[in-house]
Design goal:
With 828 residues, the protein is mainly alpha-helical. The chain contains 36 helices and 2 strands.
Amino acid sequence: VAGTASLVSTLFEVSKHEDALRAVSLYENNLLVHLESRDQSAQANCYWSLGCAYSSIEQLQQAAENFTKCYQLRLLSNESEGLAIALLRKGRANLACGDTRAAAEDLDRYLSMQQAMTEQSQGRRMPEHTVEDECDAAIALAKAYVRLGDMTQAADVLKRAMSSATTEDQPQSEAKVVVAFGEMYTGLWITKRGLDHYERALNIFVELGQRDQEAKCILEMGHLNFVRGDTTTAIKCLEEALALAKKSGTGSTVSQCLMGVAEIHLQQGSYVQTKAHFEEACNKCREQLDPMGEAQGLCGLSRVNLIMGETTMALEQVEEALKIRESLGDRKTMAECLCMLTDIYIKKGDMRQAQHVCQQARQLSAENSELLDNARAEVLLAHIMALSGDLNGALDQMQKARDLYAETTMLGGTKIFLDPHALGQVLSDLGQLYSKAGQGERAIDCLQQAEKICFASDDVAGLAAHQRTLALLMAKNATGPDFPKALDKLRVSLESCKTHGNNAGVADATLVHGQIACLQNNQAVGTQKIKLAIDMFRDSQDQRKVAEAQCLLAKSAGVSPMGVLQLQEALEIYRTVLDRLGESEALQQLAELQASLSNASASCKNWLDCLAVKRDIGDIKGAKTCIAALLMEYDKLNDHKRMVEYASELNEMARQSDDVDKASHALLYLGKAHANLNSPANGIEALTAAIQLCESAPNSSKAVGRSADCHEYLALCYSKQGRQDEALKATKESERLRARLGPAAAAAAAPASSSTSSIKATKPPASNLTPSAKAPTPTGAPAAAPVPAAAPVPAASANNTPANKAPVKKSSSMFGGMFRGSKKTNQG
């Protein structure tokens, strides 16, 4: 019976589509005739008929254009009959196209006109102004207000429509308004009220015998129950909704139910089931000639294929969905597609294309007056900045996105967030950026805020995810007592995921448990948990997570050949799924491990591969890190010609980005290379420039240690030129600086060999020389712990950066005077 009903539904949709195309052809021909005769009334009627025909086949932009022309002609000709209904259809078509502000103006004007006419007729409703039209207009206007962030207006409009429907005893219109209330509360994550309204609408639809509407209500109830953590009830609702939809024979309802089931599977981590349901829904939409549904299904398929590593297929599916939505003129969903494309390009590491598409999404969202869509684009732009090495810019951008999501609106006398789930996610992203910037307390504070917001909005899956992230941040910033708290937080997240049936969350929690155990130096437990997580990710076919876990497993193994094998496996996965970001991270970790294993040649090869990827994805900061490491490895191999080549390149890159740390590093190795290549004059010039840069941060232990190295190699260059007095002076200065560092610091900062015939250098301390975010310092000045000195040392910031602003000396010609007159400031 269901199969027969589906076939009949398909034939009906095909017939309707053919009838609409014939109507379009007919009325376009009629319109040409009326244009020649200049009959405005007839022209308006033709535009009306064309708008209706295009609406029936979901050609949204063309429908809006024709309804607009119809309304304008009737307005110009003072034709009152049909004017209001033309305005109503114009407003609804504009809303469907994504022109939210224009739609709100049209629909508000329509309702005002209808109210004025009713008042003129002493409360009697005119025949052409039906309750159904009033409720349809109110529902569309409420949706427009929701998109514009005005929940008070949306609720007031729906309340007036509800009053009209109940007064006139119109249960069909009443049920539609109740569903609109349910949609509004669902979007605001007020799940209990959403459930109540869908249940009320369901009872009305049952009395009316409308199975397709029953199925939609039950589907939404299933989704809300799942969000609240009641998985058993959610599954029952989904099964019942799908059965009802098939019995009703309405193909579009069946496809919507299939996609609803797919979304639940996606959140639970059952990706094979997700893919199967989305594919079935897409096929159903194609049969029913439902392009909007097909585009929605393609976007769902793209999301799951991206997780499963089918990156090329995911990209093609979003591009196909975007073409469909462009052809329909649906600007709102076009912006959503552009955001999805941006995410895929980010995963691929194509930051230039990602930024280009993201800017398109921002512009389209702004034109549509879509606050939340614009905020989503801002979040993506922040991720692009962070992955391109601009951490300060990413923090500023993410804070901007947070402020957009943190805007509140009034509903029932209470302030509420427009999308608490998205706000929680952006707070989590901001916290992770703060963690990368070394601001652990601010990172934890952001995650705690996200946790509270998700708890208040009954977002069970979001709450568990934020608890996992918070646990890891607490462990990374832990000093003993925080480890038990982190594990307690993780335990709560894990139990929530198990109760919810969220297999993906269980796997993520297991992986985090392994990371925390490794941070506690409990490698046995850590390795066991990470391996267990890898098995879970393989079962769900989440390829990126498998690779990520393999990298963590290699890290837990320490300096061992086993880590090399694990990283090579991760690298192969990243290359297979076209994840350039993951590939660069795996290559960097592999290069560092090979260096620790004293495999300098293999390390150089990995660093060169990593450098190529960093350049491709536009990560300038990462590229500088690769070259800095290459200099140390080529120094071990005594390949001084390559040292000159790469040190010169790093010096130029550091000049362009005002990076004193990398500049002084490059000049130090450039001087060493020239010294070993019997070019002492060039060596002196480079080392002198490096010393001047180090002196811009006199209280940084790293800068003092690097300056000591420079003076030692400077002494070698002077000796080769026969300038013994200057060589002796440089040697004494080197010794003075090392004595200032103290025995422990001097041992750490000293070169690996003091031999004058063959200069070797050890890897500098791991801390990066970045400016403090809390205290003003010279632009790009090296930052490290304050060193002992005879005179009192100024107080240091939380990031061990001197609080006073040291004078910046003029740089040498080799560094181009990049800090003269610099106006760059630090961002808090």
